[in-house]
From TrEMBL:
It comes from Sphaerobolus stellatus (strain SS14). This is Uncharacterized protein.
Length: 82
């Protein structure tokens, strides 16, 4: 699902209805549609936080594979030296 945030330049009527709906005034979107927008916004924010956390930690599989290759290389080198 692709959400496009309404702006005054793109679609002023949609922007006005969204603002009226959030405030709760007549002419705006119904409460259940506003709640769906809020839920979608929270979902997007949670996904952004997840990506932010994952970007700061090493990927477990990649990290394990790299250390495994390094250990294998050391073992082969030691056997060749002996």
């Amino acid at each position: 699902m692709h959400l496009v945030t309404p702006t005054l330049g793109r679609n002023p009527l949609t922007m006005l209805r969204t603002i009226l709906g959030f405030i709760g005034l007549p002419g705006g979107y119904p409460a259940h549609e506003i709640q769906a927008l809020k839920d979608a916004q929270e979902s997007v924010e949670e996904r952004i936080e997840y990506v932010r956390i994952q970007s700061t930690m090493p990927q477990t599989l990649a990290y394990g594979f790299t250390t495994w290759i390094t250990r294998l290389d050391i073992q082969v080198t030691l056997r060749l030296v002996r």
